[in-house]
TrEMBL record:
GO term, biological process aspect, one: peptidoglycan biosynthetic process
Cellular localization per UniProt: Cell membrane
Molecular function as annotated in GO: lipid-linked peptidoglycan transporter activity
Protein's UniProt name: Proposed peptidoglycan lipid II flippase MurJ
Domain of life: Bacteria
TM region positions: 7-33, 53-71, 83-110, 122-142, 163-182, 194-217, 238-258, 278-300, 321-345, 357-377, 389-411, 417-440, 452-476, 496-520
Keywords noted in UniProt: Cell membrane, Cell shape, Membrane, Peptidoglycan synthesis, Transmembrane, Transmembrane helix
Membrane topology recorded in Swiss-Prot or TrEMBL: Multi-pass membrane protein
Gene Ontology terms: cellular component: plasma membrane
PANTHER family the record matches: LIPID II FLIPPASE MURJ (PTHR47019:SF1)
Pfam family, one: MurJ
InterPro entries registered for this protein in UniProt: Lipid_II_flippase_MurJ/MviN (IPR051050), MurJ (IPR004268)
Length: 539
């Protein structure tokens, strides 16, 4: 447990700094191009394209297949060096081909998501796409190197290197503001130089992020060289395993495509693509800091136990991880929900926009606990080489997301369309997670569910007074008309007030949450305290 605690602390601290700098990056980007408008939505869609393309590769092959394969290759005489060299060579070739193909069909990729936009906005999004799509290659290298480092229990660099990406992006966006001014949200005002500075900055940051990971490679103890002799990589087995996850991700991308096509109807005057991405970034703070930071070291250990056939250990690891992650995400989720208005004020231009955007964040937060639990459960299936079952229960989620998205388009006003789509995604994720847990419980012959549900119930019980305390503090500070919503009219000051307000309201909620858990004698608090201490400076 101590090694898992150290790994989780390293990942948590790195993720925290990475997400905070990422939030600063978003603030500077909003200052450059706004968050509600045609130009900001055009860049958001274009910059999301490489993420969408890469997700198909990463979730479809790397996360589900590569880590278990690398763990097994450790038993080879050379520690897996020859196998991993073949794998890296193959991966690099695949990433180059996919990147070239994506750039060749960039206009059609953009139109898949936003064919209802006016021609000028569509052309701007396409121009951004040509600058952003090379990120696919660098994302691929970053994930391939990072997943190998994780499999070899070198956890820190994969989490810390995005900080460099954020710093480069912040600097580039500030240069953009210095050269061309801020709030450039008029489509007709953009010229090729402006597009190159903004799009090139985004891609340069991803390239640096991947390059920096190479400096950590020597800590794996593996030698790496180009090897085009791909016999022995187990392409047949990898292909079988990856096939189901590839289909799963394709299904997920179709759901995301429908969501984007629905929500872009609000582009220009109401929260749409850019603001949903900003809200998602805030939502990802607790998910990344706790679910991924705690779950990633557990996944490596679960994969090792699964490879050795120790099902009892797998069952215990999964249940313990679910309880531990839930402790953190329930508390942080309720703190962020009651501070939604000041939190969204950080990346909006006015208090009125923050009030309109806050429901989007709250609706995403409804799905925080299910998504965090799904991260753990899904990887337990992957550890046993089962990628077919996750595909099947993901189909349920995809069908629900599509249905909820069209329902939102039919009944929600444009001002709340983004929030309705986000809520539909959260509800679909909840159903998917329940199905996944029940299937895994049957597969493992138990999952300590009574104990786990008791713990999660205890956390939600503590979240009620915590949420009331945080909301009370928000109301006492003036609510949407108070200083936490940034009413001075000075952009930087208003965003700082939003950040401070988020911290004050959230901190009050977290303190009450912890105090109630102490009164309830929650057994998970001891491990949580140790983890928090490890994340402190100097520890």
């Amino acid at each position: 447990m101590s090694s898992l605690g150290r790994a989780s602390a390293i990942l948590g601290a790195g993720t925290l700094i990475s997400r905070v700098t990422g939030l600063v990056r978003t603030i500077v980007l909003v200052a450059a191009i706004g968050s509600i408008g045609q130009a900001s939505d055009a860049f958001a869609v274009a910059n999301q394209l490489p993420n969408n393309v890469f997700t198909i590769i990463q979730t479809g092959i790397l996360t589900a297949v590569i880590i278990p394969q690398i763990v097994r290759s450790a038993s080879h005489k050379d520690g897996g060096s020859a196998y991993i060299s073949k794998l890296f060579t193959l991966g690099t070739v695949v990433f180059l081909i996919v990147t070239a193909a994506a750039m060749a069909i960039a206009p059609w990729l953009v139109m898949l998501y936003v064919d209802s936009w006016p021609p000028a906005q569509l052309a701007l999004a396409t121009a951004f796409a040509y600058w952003c799509l090379p990120q696919v290659f660098f994302y691929g290298l970053y994930a391939l190197i990072g997943e190998t480092l994780n499999a070899k229990r070198v956890f820190g660099p994969y989490t810390w290197t995005p900080v460099a990406n954020n710093i480069i992006s912040i600097a580039g966006f500030l240069i953009f503001i210095a050269l061309f001014g801020g709030n450039q949200n008029v489509v007709d005002a953009w010229d090729p130089t402006m597009i190159a500075v903004l799009g090139g900055t985004a891609t340069l940051g991803i390239a640096l992020q991947a390059a920096l990971l190479l400096f950590a490679w020597r800590r794996t103890g593996l030698s790496l060289r180009p090897d085009f002799r791909w016999r022995g990589v187990g392409l047949g087995q990898v292909g079988t395993l990856a096939g189901w996850t590839f289909l799963m991700v394709i299904a997920g991308q179709i759901a995301g495509l429908i969501q984007t096509r629905v929500v872009t109807d609000a582009s220009g005057d109401h929260p749409s693509t850019a603001l949903m991405m900003a809200a998602w970034l805030v939502f990802m703070l607790p998910y990344s800091i706790f679910a991924i930071s705690i779950g990633t070291p557990y996944f490596t250990q679960i994969a090792e136990h699964a490879a050795a056939g120790r099902r009892d250990d797998v069952r215990s690891d999964v249940a313990r991880c679910m309880r531990f992650v839930s402790l953190f995400v329930v508390g942080s989720g309720v703190a962020l929900a009651v501070a939604a208005v000041p939190a969204t004020r950080i990346f909006t231009e006015s208090a009125a926009q923050a009030l309109e955007a806050a429901p989007v964040l709250v609706c995403y937060l409804v799905g925080l606990v299910p998504l965090s639990l799904l991260f753990i459960v899904q990887r337990a299936f992957y550890a046993f080489g089962d990628t077919r079952t996750p595909f099947l229960f993901t189909l349920v989620q995809v069908a629900l997301i599509i249905g909820f998205s069209y329902l939102a388009a039919a009944v929600a006003p444009l001002s709340q369309l983004a929030a309705a789509v986000a809520l539909g995604q959260s509800l679909a994720g909840l159903v998917q997670t329940v199905i996944a847990i029940l299937i895994l419980r049957r597969r493992l012959g138990g999952l300590e569910l009574p104990q786990t549900l008791l713990s999660i119930g205890r956390f939600f019980m503590a979240a009620i007074p915590a949420g009331l305390a945080g909301w009370g503090a928000y109301v006492l500070m003036g609510a949407g008309a108070g200083w936490t919503a940034g009413q001075t009219g000075m952009t930087f000051i208003d965003k700082m007030l939003g950040a401070v307000g988020t911290g004050v309201v959230g901190l009050i909620a977290v303190i009450v949450y912890a105090l109630v858990l102490v009164l309830l004698r929650a057994p998970e608090l001891a491990g949580a305290t140790r983890l928090v201490k490890r994340m402190l400076p100097g520890r």
